[in-house]
Amino acid sequence: MDEQYKATVDSGPAPVIEPGYTFGTVTEKISAIVLTRPASNGWFVGFGIAFLMTMMMLYAIGYLFLKGVGIWGVTIPIGWGFAIINFVWWIGIGHAGTLISAILLLLRQSWRNSINRFAEAMTLFAVACAGIFPGIHVGRPWLAYWLFPYPSTMGVWPQFRSPLMWDVFAVSTYATISALFWFIGLIPDLATLRDRATHPAARIIYGMLSLGWRGSARHWHRYETAYLLLAGLATPLVLSVHTVVSFDFAVGIVPGWHTTIFPPYFVAGAIYSGFAMVLMLAIPIRRIYGLEDFITERHLQNSAKVMLATGLIVAYGYGIEAFMGWYSGDRYDAFTIWNRLHGPYAIPYWSLLICNIFIPQLLWIRKLRSSPVALFFVSGVILVGMWLERFIIVVVSLHRDFLTSSWGMYYPTRWDWMTYIGTIGMFLAAMFLFLRILPAISIFEMRTLLPEAEVKAE
Amino acid sequence: MKRERIYGMMAEFDSPTALVEAARRTHQAGYNKIDAYSPFPIEGLAEEIGFYHDEVPLVVLIGGIIGGLTGYLMQYWMSAVDYPLNIGGKPPHSWPAFIVITFEMTILFAGISAVFGMLALNGLPMPYHPVFNVPRFALASKDRFFLIVFSSDPKYDPTGTRGFLEGLQPRSIAEVPS
To answer: Is there a contact between B111 and A180 if contact means CB atoms under 8 Å apart?
Structure first.
């Protein structure tokens, strides 16, 4: 354990946790954000803006329920529009949380311990935002439960040969497992808050939520087994979710969709955008709450490297799409590529290449990888780029298919934008609340990173 | 059944090393009904107090198998038995199309079994527990390590056990009221 700790702490460019902390001070510092620190004016302003954006989303959705999807820009041939673009964008962002909490746990990357908690929260809130879109896109959202197989008086069942049904199961499983994973990770920390809270209401609420956790060795043993197994289950699950999302496209025969590169390139893109969101959240959080000792330069560097690697896989995906357009000899595929580069949506496509491929290459420079400001900027660019990618996939493929008579154009309306921007508000509002109510960093996992946590052989 | 008034004798330690050492010596001294409490998982501690059988993996395996079977059989019965629909000329029992949902249901059931199985085996939720009667036990979720010998242990006797625990050089000792 000593060597392992040294290896993780001393040899790297920056430590995972700054030296000088004890079990007590780590506990103190993280729980103080929730228990003793008063909410600042900045928090109220930030939460207020996010809350107003959420209200705007509810207004847009309310109007949608009143009028129908005709208020959106969707028309035939582009029936998918913003709803599916935003669904894929949000669900992709969520993937980084599971990658950090499950895959990096299995790979024994202990640096994940300081960012997994809020990355998992990010996953949950992103999946919640994603879940809104297919629900309101079905046209009659009050019948969305028809998606689930339940015994109805009509006697029919869902069509299980359709990737859209697979998606229902993949996304609802993903939401359930992410919530369970997040919650069992929280139980020991909720017990810490229960024991440290002074307000009686806080003691009761945290006490109920901690389920009476007392840290027994038997409990820890089963807990760790369950946590590890859950990580092992979440790992193939997260890869399957974006694979199934890509099947929504790839199983169709529309040029630009019908390709086998989609599953790996969707998963890589998901992790790419997810890490960008992790950085855009981590950089301000560590600054505002003084957590630079726990979320160190090491975390920023590593996240930047993951973005660089997944970004290159995404670039490879674009390259293969273009190559196959030419190599397949299929005139519709070739036209799709030509249309992306020169058609009516050429500006979004070229912007996508700049955002997702060219600007992120700055991350090769070590100095920029360790600069929070530069990383924040590059992450923002990547999030825009990944949104544009889904716009290109959905809109450009649909608007020019096999028959020129069925060509069309897609222009989002203000209701599309209000709903989309509103979900960003909902996401941020949930993050603001999370930071004040629950420990944003896993306290018990941080304790295990300390040198005093190791059991010395006598 | 007569309710015992004393639940056990609890000793407090400063470090994980001290706790593991104390647990080993207590177990070797012949105490079998003991438990240890720590603010984070300590590798090997459960074995020191004589806990070897962890049923969580079995629960998860059973959950996963039930989930997979449920997923596949549900789709088979709905698509091929109860209401066969000819869609695109595909056979009613088109098994390759059923794989994805079978997989997702396996993960879903196994994951739910892992969480609720772990909680059930741990006897949680349990809002009241005698160990919480010791005021210093609040530190067990922060930076202190505790060892308890239950009064149900055949070797337990109030003075003898206290004397034994004192020999382990704990930070404090407390009797746990039931």
So the answer is: yes
